Amino acid sequence: MLNLFSRTQTPADGPAGTLRRIPVADLREGMFVQRFAGAWINHSFWRTAFLVGDAQTLQAIRASGIGELWIDTARGLDVAGVPPQPTPPVAGGGDDGDAAEDAADAIPDEAAAPTAQAPAAAARAAGPAKDFDDARRICAHGRDAVAAMFHELRMGRTIRSAEAMALVEDIAGSVERHPEALIGMARLKRADDHTFLHSVAVCALMVALGRRLGLPADLQRQAGLAGLLHNMGKAQMPMEILNKPGRLTEEEFAVIRGHAEAGWELLRSHGTAPDAVLDVVLHHHEKFDGSGYPHRLAGGSITLPSRMGTVCDVYDAVTSNRPYNRGWDPALAVRRMHGWTGHFDPAVLQAFFKSVGIYPSGALVRLRSGRLAVVMGAGSGSLLAPKVRVFYSTLTSEPIVAEVVDRSAPSCRDRITALEDPDVWKFKNLDTLWLP
């Protein structure tokens, strides 16, 4: 696995005169790739240095759609008969030194200019504390409501559809006011409420993704309902497996895989869930390449709501802490999910990245000033310039007075140069540092 974080070199780190920008067509086995010239989001390679050591790696790079890359001729073969080119200037010292510029290539519709949701971002700036208070309330109510739904199903009773839709409407309203608040709050789960808050989080993510895809409001709510109910089949699963504090065995996982069909059968027999919701309950573990379950559907055979559900379900699962495993940093999850070729519908995944941001709330980043910051949410303009809270100096290796920095403000000259690994820094309060 190639390393994502800032411990690797960038072109500016190499010896002068050893770096050369070449078209991918000129790449050969034995050359040392220092970095790709294109955006990380447009290909499945992590931007770091590695040797092209075999024909398989060479073919994968050529097939990736990358146009140009930098090679280090001191660490691998050169292109014969071509004079060296000057090393490009790169601010900062991280593997993501060109993060903003690369991401601009990745999201051409909206990255360079204010996004379609920028007015909402500006409007919510006046009352972020209230938005987060509302998000806390909705999460608490949602957790209890989903727990009650599980109990009703275990008792053989029917879910009250009006109550479920009222919760979806509450969640959708919060997402429209301040999506980072609810999505971020729902990520802060305890072991005993993970199953219930996961449903709340997937509901919120589905609504946000539906907005990004331009779905009408009623279909956004239907997507949200699908997210809320997608795991109801787990009400039929053994409690000792659901509540197990460690990793599941292969046998236990085989049992859990039955929750998709169990949930579909339960809700279908009750006759209250729309067909699109039933489809997500049944097929949110299908993969775009046909390797998922339960029916190994592929491509267009998977409905759009289920393709959305797959992305939202996985994102919340991998960014949530478990008793046996710390959740991934949100920005790391975005990058890793991008690299899972065949798992997701690429178009839906791109829209999802735009809905949560290139640097989602809670991501740990390094700024050009040498300060570390945690992302608080979208700024008032570009997706590439989130609002962050700086709290630590890498120059002095000491905490500093926390300060909120809006990267989209015209007066702000600091920029994100690297994505940092929380497991390296081990800050104890990182999960809540992004809260207002």
In terms of DSSP E residues, the strand content is 5-15%
Structural class designation: alpha+beta
**Lateral arrangement of strands in the main beta sheet:** 8-7-6-5-9
- CATH architecture of the largest domain, by name, is Orthogonal Bundle
Given as residue ranges, the uncertain stretches (5+ residues, pLDDT < 50) are 1-16, 39-44, 83-126
Secondary structure tally, helices? 17
Largest sheet: 5 strands, antiparallel
Question: What CATH first level of the largest domain would be assigned?
Answer: Mainly Alpha
Would you list the SSEs in sequence order as H and E?
A: EEEHEHHHHHHHHHHHHHHEEEEEHH
Helix content: 40-55%
Distance between the termini: 36 Å
Q: What overall form do the CA principal axes indicate?
A: globular
Tally of domains? 3
Mean pLDDT across the residues is 79
Strand tally: 9
The CATH superfamily of the largest domain is known as Hypothetical protein af1432
CATH topology of the largest domain: Hypothetical protein af1432
Radius of gyration from the alpha-carbon trace, in angstroms: 23 Å
